[in-house]
Amino acid sequence: MNFVDNDRWRGVCTLHDEDIHEYTVEAWTDTFRSWQAEFAKKFEAGISDLRSEALEGAALIEAAARRARDRADRKRLSGVCPANFDRC
Asked: What pLDDT is stored for residue 27 in this prediction?
């Protein structure tokens, strides 16, 4: 699959015989990467009040820490959030 733009992707599958074929496309969203890209765009555009976006990111990290199965991962994720964010 190749990224086209926004939420569009393109893939090519060459079939060598004339027959009925069935295929499935599975997709997953990357919530953190989407948040990160959106945050970066706003920051680069000079938007200075990004508190709500930072809290959203903190909530994503907090949720990832709760889902972490490995204790070291959980501890590392919990330590990412600055102390002034109440949600971390």
From this structure: 82
Residue 33 has pLDDT above 80, yes or no: yes
Tokens 């948040």 belong to 35
Answer whether residue 51 is part of any domain. yes
User: What SS3 class is residue 68?
Assistant: coil
1-21 pLDDT, tens digit per residue, is: 888 998 888 988 888 999 998
Is the pTM higher than 0.85? The answer reads no
Residue 15 domain boundaries = 2-78
CB atoms within 10 A of CB 8: 8
d(CA 56, CA 63): 11
- Tally of domains within the chain: 1
Scanning the chain, the segments in alpha helix (DSSP H) are: 31-44, 51-67, 71-78
Q: HSE-up of 57 (CA within 13 Å, CB side)?
A: 16
Nearest in space to 79 (alpha carbons), one of 68, 70, 88: 88
